[in-house]
Design brief:
3 helices; about 700 residues; single chain; mainly beta
Length: about 700
C-alpha cells in the first residue's frame, strides 16, 4: 500500500522528488493487470478461459524515474508433465503507461497458465505482482470448440415425427443440451425472433426456452453452444411446422332468431338466455356479423352454458363485440366464477374504461362510448403470469401480474360478481384456451371498410358527374366543368390543325374549378363522421403560390365543417382541420404535411384523410404517406348532416376557400383503410379492401 500511495503522490505532482528510501519501482497492482482484457484472477472458478493465447497487460509505475520496463514471467505444466517457465522483457516506457505482452502460439492448451509482472527502472526492480498483498494471475487456453447442441421439444416435434403441430398461440418449450461439460451459454434464434442468449444453472447443463408462435408456417430454431472460453460450437438446426391457431373452445355468435331462448354454440355448449335478452339486434358493420343480442341491464340480462367455458387456471382469453347503452356504471361483458375473470366496463372517476380482472388484479384502458361498437378482449398468459387487455385490436393499459386458479363457476355473458348486468348489445363471444396473438386480436376487431362512393370525374350529364357504381352523383356547381383529355384522334406534332389538349390528372378527365364559385357536392351527407371513415382525392392547384387558403374536400354539420382538407399557403402545407364540436368557433384539431404546389403543369398531389374512431386518431396522407406531424388525437368525432363538398368550405354563415385547380379520383369509405390500401388510391382502380 505504501508503494501505491507513493506512486499516486508522484502522479499528482510531477517532478516532485520521492523520499530517498522509495527508490525502487512500485509493485504492480493486481487491479491493473488484465488477461486478454479480463481482470487478473486465480482459482478454478475465477481464472480466465481464453480461446487464443492472450495479450497480457499491466500498468507499471516508478516513483522517482521517468521510464520503466516490464518483466513478465509465465509458467505452466506441459503435456509431458514438465514445467515450462518463460520470462519476457518489454521496452522501456514512461511510468504510468500500460505495458502489454502478446503470448506466443505455443502455449500449451487445456492447462492452467500462471503469470506475474514487475517493473524495472534499469537500476532496481519492483517486487513481483504476486508478492505481498498481490496475487498470481491464471488462465486456461482452450483450443477446442464445444460440441453442437441437441434440441428437443415435446410440443413441437420435427416434421419426421409430426408434420404440422398446434399451433399459433400455443407455447412450445425447446431444450438445448451440448455434450461438452464447459458450456456456459447458448445463443438461439427463431425465424423472425425472438433471439437471445441463455445460461444454464450449472456449467455444462441444459437450458429450456419458451417460444410462442405468432404465425403459422415452417419455423426454424438455430442454436450454438458457447463455452467459458467464448468458443462456439457448430450450428444446430431444428425444423418444425406451426399450424394456424385452433378455434375457440367456446363460441357464441349471438345471431340467433328473434324469440329464441338460448344461443347456439359454434363450439362448446349452447347458452340459455335470461328473459332480459332479446335476439335480432344490430351488428357492427364490416364484421361479417348479421345480428347480435340485446341485454336490458336487469337481473335476467345474461346468457350462460351453466358450466365453465374455459379453464381459467391456465392460459385463456375472452373477447366480444359490445355496444353499451350507458357508461355511468360498472357492467360485465362476460365472467367466469367469483374469483376467476371478468371482462367489462368500469365507470371510473376519470371517465369510463374497459377492464379485465383476473384473480382480483385489474387492467384497464380505452374509452367506452355509449352507442358505439367496440371489440374487447382480455388475455391471461400463464407462461408469463401477465394479464393483457385489447380494445379494438390494440393492446391498452399496463400488463398486470396475476395468479388465477381454475374455477368451477359457470361462464356468464352479461353478468359478473360485484358489477351490474350489461345494458346494450353483445355479439360474437369467444373463449380461448391459448394466447390470442396480436395479429389475431387485430383481425378479430377488424371492420372491413365499405366503399361509399368513387367518382372518377371523367364525364358529366345534366350537371352531375356519376358515381362509378351508380351511386349518388356529384352535382356540379356554377363554374365547375369536366375537362376531357386528348382523344388521340390526331397528333398536334403531325397535324398543325390538331388542337393541343392537356391530359387529365388521372384517366380521361378531371374536374376543373375556377376558385370563385365553382364546386361539386353530393345531395346529402355521405360520410358518418362520428364513426371511422377514409376519403381520398387527387388535386392540382393552378397557382403555384396561392394567395389564400383553398379547400379541396369538406362535409358540414349544423354550425361548422366536421372536416376539411385545404391548402394553407402561409405554412406551405396541406392541412386536415377537424373541429372538436359542432359549434361556431369550436377548437380545432389540425394536422399538416408541408408541400409546395407544382402549378397547372404539375402531376398533382394524392391526399387521403383517415378518422379512426376506435383509436380516436386522425391522419393526413400525402402521396400515400403520413408522419407524426400529420397525425393527432381526436377523442370524439361528431355526426355531420351536410353533403360532401368538393372545392369549398363553410366560412361563417356562407361559403369560401374556393379551390382554383383540378380535382380527380374522389374515393369515400366507411371504416379505416390500411396504409397499403391508401397507397393504391388515386390511380384510377379500386384499392384492395383486404
Amino acid at each position: 500500500m505504501v508503494a501505491g500511495i507513493a506512486a499516486a503522490t508522484v502522479l499528482s505532482a510531477p517532478g516532485t522528488a520521492a523520499a530517498a528510501e522509495n527508490t525502487s519501482p512500485a509493485r504492480p497492482l493486481v487491479k491493473d493487470l488484465l488477461t486478454g482484457g479480463k481482470a487478473c484472477a486465480a482459482g478454478e472458478e475465477a481464472r480466465s478461459y481464453v480461446s487464443a493465447p492472450p495479450r497480457l497487460s499491466a500498468v507499471l509505475y516508478d516513483p522517482d524515474r521517468t521510464q520503466v520496463s516490464g518483466e513478465f514471467e509465465v509458467w505452466w505444466t506441459d503435456a509431458e508433465g514438465a514445467e515450462q517457465r518463460r520470462t519476457y522483457t518489454t521496452t522501456a516506457k514512461l511510468s504510468g503507461t500500460t505495458f502489454t505482452l502478446q503470448l506466443p502460439s505455443d502455449i500449451t492448451p487445456t492447462t492452467v497458465v500462471s503469470w506475474r509482472v514487475r517493473a524495472n527502472d534499469g537500476t532496481a526492480a519492483s517486487p513481483w505482482s504476486s508478492e505481498g498483498e498481490g496475487s498470481v494471475c491464471e488462465f486456461v487456453y482452450d483450443d477446442v470448440n464445444p460440441e453442437k447442441a441437441t434440441i428437443a421439444s415435446p410440443e413441437y416435434p420435427q416434421p419426421e415425427d409430426v408434420f404440422w403441430v398446434d399451433g399459433v398461440g400455443v407455447y412450445g418449450h425447446f431444450t438445448m443440451d451440448s455434450p461438452s461439460d464447459d458450456v456456459v451459454a447458448y445463443t438461439y434464434g427463431f425465424i423472425g425472433g425472438p433471439y437471445g442468449t441463455v445460461r444454464p444453472e450449472q456449467r455444462g447443463g441444459a437450458v429450456t426456452v419458451p417460444f410462442l408462435p405468432l404465425a403459422s408456417g415452417p419455423q426454424t430454431l438455430t442454436v450454438r453452444a458457447i463455452d467459458r472460453a467464448g468458443r462456439s460450437s457448430g450450428q444446430s438446426l431444428y425444423y418444425f411446422n406451426v399450424k394456424s391457431g385452433h378455434a375457440p373452445v367456446s363460441h357464441w355468435k349471438l345471431a340467433d332468431a328473434v324469440g329464441a331462448t338460448s344461443a347456439d354454440a359454434e363450439s362448446g355448449t349452447d347458452a340459455r338466455a335470461g328473459s332480459g335478452v332479446t335476439f335480432g339486434g344490430a351488428a357492427p358493420a364490416g364484421t361479417g356479423l348479421t345480428t347480435t343480442a340485446h341485454l336490458d341491464g336487469g337481473d335476467q340480462a345474461f346468457l350462460t352454458p351453466d358450466a365453465p367455458a374455459v379453464d381459467t387456471g391456465g392460459t385463456f382469453a375472452v373477447g366480444a363485440w359490445v355496444r353499451p347503452e350507458r357508461t355511468d356504471r360498472d357492467m360485465a361483458v362476460a365472467s367466469q366464477g367469483s374469483d376467476g375473470a371478468t371482462l367489462g366496463l368500469r365507470a371510473g372517476d376519470d371517465g369510463p374504461v374497459w377492464s379485465f380482472t383476473v384473480a382480483g388484479q385489474e387492467i384497464s384502458g380505452g374509452a367506452p362510448e355509449s352507442g358505439e361498437w367496440a371489440h374487447v378482449l382480455g388475455l391471461y398468459d400463464a407462461e408469463t403470469g401477465l394479464a393483457q387487455l385489447y380494445v379494438n385490436g390494440y393492446e391498452t393499459g399496463t400488463r398486470t401480474q396475476a395468479a388465477p386458479a381454475g374455477t368451477t363457476g359457470a361462464f356468464r355473458i352479461g353478468q359478473g360478481t360485484g358489477v351490474s348486468a350489461w345494458q346494450g348489445d353483445i355479439g360474437d363471444v369467444r373463449a380461448y384456451d391459448r394466447v390470442v396473438v396480436p395479429a389475431e386480436a387485430t383481425e378479430l376487431a377488424r371492420r372491413k371498410p365499405q366503399l361509399l362512393g368513387h367518382w372518377s370525374l371523367e364525364t358529366a350529364s345534366d350537371g352531375a358527374s356519376p358515381e362509378q357504381s351508380g351511386g349518388v352523383p356529384l352535382r356540379l356547381g356554377a363554374g365547375a366543368v369536366i375537362h376531357r383529355g386528348p382523344d388521340n384522334s390526331c397528333l398536334p406534332e403531325i397535324d398543325p390543325d390538331c388542337p393541343v389538349v392537356p391530359y387529365a390528372l388521372v384517366g380521361d378527365g378531371h374536374l376543373q374549378l375556377d376558385g370563385e364559385t365553382a364546386y361539386a357536392a353530393t345531395d346529402a351527407a355521405l360520410l358518418d363522421t362520428a364513426d371511422s371513415f377514409t376519403i381520398g382525392v387527387v388535386v392540382r392547384l393552378t397557382d403555384p403560390e396561392p394567395a389564400h387558403p383553398m379547400t379541396v374536400l369538406s362535409q358540414a354539420g349544423e354550425h361548422t365543417d366536421a372536416f376539411k382538407v385545404r391548402y394553407e399557403p402561409s405554412t406551405y402545407s396541406w392541412q386536415l382541420v377537424m373541429p372538436e364540436k359542432d359549434e361556431a368557433g369550436a377548437a380545432e384539431t389540425v394536422v399538416a404535411q408541408i408541400a409546395s404546389p407544382a402549378g397547372a403543369d404539375g402531376y398533382g398531389s394524392r391526399l387521403a384523410i383517415v378518422y379512426d374512431d376506435a383509436t380516436d386518431r386522425i391522419k393526413l396522407y400525402l402521396d400515400g404517406w403520413t408522419n407524426a406531424t400529420a397525425t393527432a388525437t381526436l377523442p370524439n368525432g361528431w355526426h355531420s348532416s351536410g353533403p360532401l363538398q368538393v372545392g369549398r368550405a363553410h366560412i361563417g354563415d356562407g361559403w369560401g376557400e374556393y379551390l382554383h385547380g383540378d380535382v380527380d379520383e374522389v374515393h369515400a369509405f366507411s371504416g379505416v383503410l390500411s396504409d397499403s390500401s391508401i397507397r393504391q388510391l388515386g390511380g384510377g382502380a379500386e384499392p384492395c379492401l383486404c
